[in-house]
Amino acid sequence: MSSIPARYRPHLDPQEFVAAPAAGPDERVDVGALFVGAGPAGLAGAIRLAQLLEGAPAVRERLGEVPVAVIEKGKYPGAHAVSGAVIDPIALRTLFPGVPDSELPVRSRVEREAVYFLTADGSVRIPTPPTMRNHGNLTASLSEVARWMGERAEALGVTLLNETVAQRLLVQDGAVHGVATGDKGLDRDGAPLSNHEPGVEVRAQATVLAEGVTGHLAQTLVERFDLRGPNPQVYSLGVKEVWEVARPLDRVIHTLGWPLRGGAKWREFGGTWLYPLGEHQVSIGLVVGLDYADASLSPHDLLQEFKLHPLVREVLEGGTRHERGWGAKTIPEGGWYALPRRLAVPGALLVGDAAGFVNVPALKGIHYAMWSGILAAEAIFAALVAGRDLRAPGTLDGYDAAVRRSFIGRDLHRVRNVRQAFGAGLAGGGALAGLMTATAGLFPGWRFGAEEDAEHAVAPSGRVYAKPDGVRTFDKLSSVYASGNRTRDTQPNHLRVRTDVPEEVGEAWIRMCPAEVYEWGTDAAGKRVLVVNATNCVQCGAITAKGGRLTPPEGGSGPEYVIT
């Protein structure tokens, strides 16, 4: 049997995550510009705005005692940041023009690259598609990049509020006025403990939502202001490890094919990577689109299988997984037609993965995220120089126009139908994608429609995976430990899912989750129900794509990534 996960979504009140500003001057925190999320987009925006304000003291004064602030739900910038990553350095070089590459938070420059098509025990090198060429780009750990940028932001006077969750959007008279932060020190039922710290209102003249993929408040903003694009956003899930290796990897490697199946029946779109992180470390990972049809598919276990392939064995031979080198994260893949209709509303802007700025065929999103943060900062600064109210209608619309005419808009528009084409399978999708690339997006001349990932039916195939050996391959729980997850097990459940779901839906969630959050259990009446182990959650966001909803746990919870 098959079932459609979207039919089992939990009930959510759209007003739950929205509040009217109510706190008095002595009961709130007032800031000038607030960036929600200390990832590459939020930090790039905060840094750029601080740089602009350095040369404009009168403008800076208008923003009050805390002109620029960043809220981060993790322990520190980068605690929740995961990527491959190969980075186009344009944004880093724009923000830090006097800093040589040797002092940037990157590992190596891409000089050589290769793309392979894999079978279960073989590989064929194929020409590198034009969209995937990386010569001159830089390999990096995104969590390291974020920590480095956080230090630079603080040096410029930016206030970082770590371990702080933006729980509700403050909205009044059609404008965003900031956020309300979440409480700390609640028990499983939401009752205050002895160490309870109530949340506060953080008022801002401009609020920039840079929460990353499946951002809690970004989704709230899209719903509240009716910003949905013509296509729904769709997602993939990436799982990665960092390995200490005996021999350096001399090139960037991408693969297609095995362990994913290419037929349209399975809808398994994705691939794998091997990136050199200097001479002694390698980043290895797998990405698969979350519109797949097989309820037995486990991205984490597919990555473990991939490591046994002869091509990968040679790279990892004699190596060990870094003790903190595992992570997982969802990626927005909907492209141009899934972008919000507007990226700016009175008092607020959407940047980075929260807006969906990812170029799927190029495997790139980090420099788009950073550039959108820069453009957001410049739009805020221009409005302040002009003496305009940042919460007034139309004041921040220049940001939307700037994004769409920048390389972000140009690049995403050229590949606007590529991801959707792969609904026809690897062979058919590859042929269509080639025509789209050759014509710079002019073919086919119309919009390919899409469905949400959770709208696709799932059914188990009976796929099984080899038992992990603890040396080359690892189980989910040991990997969660390697993420540095420190979630308090007595806090309220932050995962909104139904537990009375059909076998196929429950099995799909159990297998999909890389952190073993879901398992079967029984209720008091002996009925089989889904059990949610929220403490394991690494906040990858996949459940939001596949029929549930991730909301923020207590500030400071979740993984503590250091090298992902």
Walk me through what this model shows:
The chain has 564 residues and is an alpha+beta fold. Among the domains are: 29-81 and 146-229 and 339-414, FAD/NAD(P)-binding domain, CATH 3.50.50.60; 418-450, no CATH class. 25% of the residues lie in helices and 23% in strands. The protein is built from 15 helices and 25 strands. It has helices at residues 40-54, 57-62, 90-95, 142-155, 216-224, 299-306, 310-316, 366-385, 397-405, 407-414, 418-421, 425-438, 476-482, 503-512, 542-545, and strands spanning 18-19, 28-36, 68-71, 86-87, 108-109, 113-118, 123-126, 138-139, 159-161, 166-172, 175-181, 184-186, 192-197, 201-209, 235-244, 252-257, 270-276, 281-289, 320-332, 344-345, 348-350, 495-496, 518-522, 528-532, 549-550. Strands 1, 2, 3, 9, 10, 11, 14, 20 and 21 form a 9-stranded mixed beta sheet that branches. A 7-stranded mixed beta sheet has the order 7-6-16-17-18-15-19. Strand 12 and strand 13 form a beta hairpin. Helix 1 (40-54) packs parallel to helix 4 (142-155). It is globular, with a radius of gyration of 23 Å. It starts with 17 loop residues before the first strand and ends in a 14-residue tail after the last strand. The mean pLDDT is 97.
How would the global form be characterised? globular
**Number of H/I helices:** 15
Q: Give the number of DSSP strands.
A: 25
* CATH C-level label of the domain at 29-81 and 146-229 and 339-414: Alpha Beta
Second-tier CATH architecture of the domain at 29-81 and 146-229 and 339-414: 3-Layer(bba) Sandwich
Described by its quaternary structure, the protein is single chain
Mean pLDDT: 97
Report the uncertain regions.
none
Indicate the proportion of strand residues: 15-25%
CATH topology of the domain at 29-81 and 146-229 and 339-414: FAD/NAD(P)-binding domain
Major sheet attributes: 9 strands, mixed
Going by CATH, what is the homologous superfamily of the domain at 29-81 and 146-229 and 339-414?
FAD/NAD(P)-binding domain
Evaluate the radius of gyration. 23 Å
The portion of residues assigned to helices is 25-40%
The helix-and-strand class reads alpha+beta
> End-to-end span in angstroms?
38 Å
